[in-house]
């Protein structure tokens, strides 16, 4: 399978497993898991065809590790980024002292005034390193990397979760915890 095919399948899986399973009448359980055979069958009706081996390749080679299988690979789900209501069954964890959030320059004034909101997602996403945050910010325009004082947030009683693919999640980041390190 070539890179273009993998990208097409990955993008479609993101849409279906994170946002719109109803597009193909796919049923996700309360934790976001989909039956792999049902997924393949319903995708094929939309002319998105892939073997189990190809699906495994998409999951394993995805640079953002967006998807995960259960142990016997009969179920699959997105690791985070859902706009639909599911319970990833994540346990609260203590974050590092600082995490990073990548965004576009056009969002900075609003963020520094109102904080970082989850909007249509279940959580705000934070990165462990500036490189990852930069890649996220680049998707939306000229990237700006914000430093988040997550240690202080945690001290103040704010909950954090770590997804399977190592993205830190929280419900909201108030402006008082955000630093805009220009340059």
Automatic annotation (TrEMBL):
Pfam families: PTS_2-RNA. Keywords: NAD, Transferase. It is an enzyme of class 2 (transferase). It comes from the Bacteria. Its EC number is 2.7.1.-. Gene3D superfamilies: 3.20.170.30, RNA 2'-phosphotransferase, Tpt1/KptA family, N-terminal domain. One of its GO terms (molecular function) is NAD+ poly-ADP-ribosyltransferase activity. One of its GO terms (biological process) is tRNA splicing, via endonucleolytic cleavage and ligation. Signal peptide: none annotated. The keyword Transcription does not apply. Removes the 2'-phosphate from RNA via an intermediate in which the phosphate is ADP-ribosylated by NAD followed by a presumed transesterification to release the RNA and generate ADP-ribose 1''-2''-cyclic phosphate (APPR>P). May function as an ADP-ribosylase. Belongs to the KptA/TPT1 family. This is Probable RNA 2'-phosphotransferase.
């Amino acid at each position: 399978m070539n890179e273009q095919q993998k990208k097409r399948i990955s993008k479609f899986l993101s849409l279906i497993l994170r946002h719109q399973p109803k597009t193909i009448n796919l049923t996700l359980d309360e934790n976001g898991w989909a039956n792999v055979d049902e997924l393949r069958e319903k995708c094929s009706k939309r002319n998105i065809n892939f073997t189990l081996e190809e699906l495994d390749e998409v999951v394993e080679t995805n640079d953002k590790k967006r998807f995960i299988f259960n142990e016997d690979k009969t179920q699959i789900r997105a690791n985070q980024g859902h706009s639909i209501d599911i319970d990833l069954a994540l346990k609260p964890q203590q974050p590092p002292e600082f995490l990073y959030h990548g965004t576009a320059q056009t969002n900075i004034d609003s963020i520094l005034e109102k904080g970082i909101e989850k909007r249509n997602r279940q959580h705000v996403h934070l990165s462990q390193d500036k490189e990852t945050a930069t890649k996220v910010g680049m998707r939306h325009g000229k990237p700006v990397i914000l430093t988040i004082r997550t240690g202080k947030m945690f001290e103040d009683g704010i909950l954090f979760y770590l997804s399977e693919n190592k993205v830190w999640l929280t419900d909201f980041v108030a402006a008082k915890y955000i630093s805009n390190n220009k340059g």
